[in-house]
Amino acid sequence: MKKAARYVFFCMVLLLYKGAKAQVCPDHNWDTVNLVFEDNFDVAGRSWYNFFCEPDHKWWAFPLDRMQVTLDNTTFQVYQWGNCHFNNNDGTMELTSSYTSQELHCGDYVIPNYPGCSCNPTLSNLHFFSGHIETDQLYHFGYYEIRCKLPTHPGAFPAFWLFGNGSNSYEEIDIFEYSWGSFYPNNYEAGRLFTTAFWYNPTSTTYDWKRCKSHGHRLESDAPPLSDWHVFGCDWSPNYIRWFLDGKLISSYSVKDTIPQAPKRIKVNYSIDKYAFWEQWTGEDTMSIDYVKVYRLKKDCERAARIQNVSQLINFQYAVKGFIWFSHSAEFSRALVFPQGFAETFRSVNGYRFSGDIRIPLGCTVSFITQDCPSDDE
């Protein structure tokens, strides 16, 4: 039981999407006090020096894995630190994309002054300046969360993702990507609005969509506007990945041999894709970020827990337990009845036992996960 992460979803309740106003971490087993990483963008005096965030050194303003401020011929922006603005008035990070009437070439933009950084003179259709930030440090398994609102014009391609290859594997986890939802003939990306996914190539550090193991989810077209504030989350474990929107589970994957395993940098970027040219978008827009956080699991792996009544259920001390036993006691009631609308996740190393009269009403959402005890880097 320790080697496979397994979930049991008893009663799924429909939750309406809404613009979140605060932390929406959906699983109380995560430690919300001692975070692995946290940036609320509310510290005054932060600035960029040579694409590096001063004075705390949390972020870079260009993709370190490419050592360029440009990407390829599928996106048409140049990343500049001036388009990554620490807004001290409202405590946000603003990634702003702006159109330039002329095509940009080497010499029209700033290149980071670091060994290995270069300008790619072969790229064309660079007509936008925009923003990209990624962490200086690499992070491992945990719960990743961002609160942000997205640009949604034609061509806007914002994303929150994790990247870091293994010794011989390409590994990428997309917590979300957004691009415009128009339909064009013979276009395999037609209609994409919002996606969660990961890409894993076990035989090379190069992305190859034909070889990559992948899993994706597309948000329904009638979902609420992503231009409002929302919280996007991802639970990345050695054995599974789960994606959340405003605290609601929207997708999951649990084939261990194809789960990315290497530590990764956190990336938030605002790219411009081909829809901008098809729809002749020439404006300016901003991706606003309220916070980025990474949580680790609380551990109590040596201890078993028993829940016999509603009071013990409501006051349960969430953490990865050694074993959890659900039972009822005639001293308190004839049955252990979960409250209406109960929505929680339980985690155990050695599994669960259910004895007696246990009742979970319709409208509850209860998850039971069996997993290894988290290591120190989880």
Keywords:
2 domains, 378 residues, Jelly Rolls
How are the elements arranged and paired?
Elements: E1 37-39, E2 47-49, E3 52-54, E4 59-60, E5 77-79, E6 84-87, E7 92-99, E8 128-130, E9 132-135, E10 142-149, E11 156-163, E12 170-178, E13 194-201, E14 213-218, E15 230-236, E16 241-245, E17 248-253, E18 265-272, H1 275-278, E19 284-295, E20 299-307, H2 310-314, E21 320-327, E22 336-337, E23 343-348, E24 352-355, E25 358-359, E26 365-370
Parallel strand pairs: 5-8, 20-21, 21-24, 22-25, 23-26
Antiparallel strand pairs: 1-19, 2-3, 4-9, 6-7, 7-8, 7-19, 9-18, 10-15, 10-19, 11-12, 11-18, 12-13, 13-14, 15-16, 16-17
What would you say this structure looks like, in words?
The chain is elongated. With 378 residues, the protein is mostly beta strands. 37% of the residues are buried. It has helices at 275-278, 310-314; strands at residues 37-39, 47-49, 52-54, 59-60, 77-79, 84-87, 92-99, 128-130, 132-135, 142-149, 156-163, 170-178, 194-201, 213-218, 230-236, 241-245, 248-253, 265-272, 284-295, 299-307, 320-327, 336-337, 343-348, 352-355, 358-359, 365-370. The protein contains two helices and 26 strands. It folds into two domains: 1-28 and 303-378, no CATH class; 37-295, Sandwich (Jelly Rolls). The strands form six sheets. Strands 1, 5, 6, 7, 8, 10, 15, 16, 17 and 19 form a ten-stranded mixed sheet that branches. Strands 4-9-18-11-12-13-14 form a seven-stranded antiparallel sheet, with no helix packed on it. The protein has a three-stranded parallel sheet with strand order 20-21-24.
